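Worked example 3 (structure in, sequence out).
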């Protein structure tokens, strides 16, 4: 009689486990699927995606991170690729599609090496070496830029907007972006938060404007207030101009009508006193972060003071930077030296909304870009394009380095990596070559999206670079090879360094996974049966 070994179960019955090559292939397939989704959006000839959510809201965009966030991806590995896009967005503000397709291509080429029985850790080590060498090469190839190079900064802005909804007015918008950045820059450091983007539907994109100050999505609180104030002295208040409620639950009993009148009179005197403090400071405009009582509104209107209430905290901070004022949280401390100054404060109707323009500030360290467009979807896409342009200009100035676009820098880095691979021994040599092939996905995709033959374009590009043309890139409009620098296709170095860093790190991480254990039920992070959370017939909500 033979002894049968009883199988040992260490996981719940409803868990699913994938191990070894199956796990690696599943993960690589998920990563490639994400990359394929956004691949067609790359470059000036990239297409847009329409995303419809469960409530019927529509987003039309070719912005990589917006697409991936709206898609609500479920597959755990695919989520890691989405994180690459988010990191790129947070660090630079642009280049999200580049980072994602690079990660997908690295894993696609890693799969070929896995099929040749090269161990995942060897591939991961080769990728790490190649990524490190790529950073070296990029730094060596980059050109210098600073705040005085307005022409280069303008071209960077235009490159960021090419192929997006704002392309029709990219020259005008790039000009506005450069002016905005120069206004808020301190040396070569730019805090993008000091540039507010306000969007309004109902005018052409080309009528977008830069306000030397702040535009508030607020109207004056009382119709009796003046609509326009010149030489404004602005009180920035983080205190309510109304009677405060007591800190604890309190009950006031009044059994005499005269006492009730006295109580009301006292409230009015307190409001009067608050308004007097504002008037005596010399302020003729009030921006209040909290509420303004009805009586206070009337009294301020009587004194010809323009007031807005419930201003966002972020807008208050920008107002302080734009007008040079100080935010005051106690009216007793409100003195003339705390007031901000602006040449003009006025209420202007834009579309259906009344906005408060605080403009003509003397040396504003915070400004507003008012972007316009014919429909809500157009304005939203213009806002995304302008955000990318501002991010690119700021990233260029932060590092002080830029590179030629149109696939030129990728071909140069790929060439450098091939030379580097020849100095290596062992199987890492193959992984570095795979990395060099992967970087070429950018010019290949640019060519594919323009309807050109990628093999012909790649061959011509390599020949141009071998002939010493450092910035030779693909002109997607003519189908020929161009000098991207002369054509004004310029990008910040940070886009490339960050994309390579994030993509290589996530590829190395995914390659090291050889066992996937997914609990079923509705537990978070479980692997859905349909793979990447895709219902039959494709990715949910995408047309």
């Amino acid at each position: 009689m033979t002894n049968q070994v009883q199988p040992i179960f260490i996981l719940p019955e409803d868990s699913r486990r994938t191990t070894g090559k199956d796990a690696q292939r599943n993960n690589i397939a998920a990563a490639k699927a994400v990359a394929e989704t956004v691949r067609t959006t790359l470059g000036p000839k990239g297409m847009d995606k329409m995303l419809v959510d469960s409530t019927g809201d529509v987003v039309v965009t070719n912005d990589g991170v917006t697409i991936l966030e709206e898609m609500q991806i479920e597959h755990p590995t695919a989520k890691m690729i989405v994180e690459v896009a988010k990191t790129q967005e947070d660090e630079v503000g642009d280049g999200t599609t580049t980072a994602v397709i690079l990660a997908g291509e690295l894993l696609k080429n890693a799969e070929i090496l896995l099929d040749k029985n090269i161990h995942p850790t060897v591939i991961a080590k080769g990728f790490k070496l190649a990524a490190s060498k790529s950073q070296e090469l990029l730094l060596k190839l980059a050109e210098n830029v600073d705040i005085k190079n307005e022409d280069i900064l303008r071209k960077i802005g235009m490159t960021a907007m090419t192929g997006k909804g704002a392309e029709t007015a990219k020259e005008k918008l790039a000009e506005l972006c450069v002016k905005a950045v120069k206004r808020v820059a301190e040396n070569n450091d730019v805090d993008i938060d000091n540039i507010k983007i306000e969007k309004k539907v109902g005018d052409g994109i080309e009528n977008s404007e830069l306000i030397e100050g702040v535009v508030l999505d607020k109207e004056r609180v009382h119709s009796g207030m003046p609509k326009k104030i010149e030489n404004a002295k602005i009180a920035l208040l983080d205190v309510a101009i109304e009677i405060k409620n007591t800190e604890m639950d309190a009950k006031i009993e009044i059994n005499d009508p005269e006492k009730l009148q006295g109580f009301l009179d006292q409230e009015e005197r307190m409001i009067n006193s608050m308004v007097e403090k504002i008037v005596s400071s010399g302020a003729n405009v009030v921006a209040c972060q909290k509420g303004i009582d009805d009586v206070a509104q009337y009294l301020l209107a009587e004194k010809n003071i323009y007031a807005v209430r419930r201003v966002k905290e972020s807008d208050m901070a920008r107002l302080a930077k734009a007008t040079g004022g100080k935010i005051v949280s106690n009216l007793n401390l409100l003195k003339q030296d705390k007031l901000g100054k602006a040449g003009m404060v006025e209420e202007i109707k834009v579309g259906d909304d009344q906005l408060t323009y605080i403009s003509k500030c003397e040396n504003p360290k915070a400004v507003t870009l008012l972007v316009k467009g014919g429909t809500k979807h157009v304005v939203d896409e213009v806002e995304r394009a302008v955000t990318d342009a501002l991010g690119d200009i700021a990233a260029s100035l932060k590092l002080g380095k830029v590179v030629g676009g149109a696939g030129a820098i990728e071909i140069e880095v790929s060439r450098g990596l091939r030379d580097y691979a020849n100095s290596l021994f062992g199987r890492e040599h193959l992984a570095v070559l795979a990395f060099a092939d992967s970087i070429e996905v950018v010019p290949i995709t640019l060519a594919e999206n323009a309807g050109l033959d990628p093999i012909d374009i790649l061959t011509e590009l390599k020949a141009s670079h071998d002939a010493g043309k450092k910035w030779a890139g693909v002109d997607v409009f003519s189908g020929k090879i161009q000098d991207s620098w002369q054509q004004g296709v310029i990008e910040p170095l940070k886009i490339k360094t960050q994309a390579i860093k994030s993509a290589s790190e996530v590829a190395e991480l995914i390659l090291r996974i050889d066992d996937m254990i997914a609990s079923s039920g509705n537990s978070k992070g479980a692997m859905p049966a349909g793979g990447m959370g895709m219902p039959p017939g494709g990715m949910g909500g995408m047309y």
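Notes: The first helix runs from residue 20 to 39. The chain has a mean pLDDT of 76.
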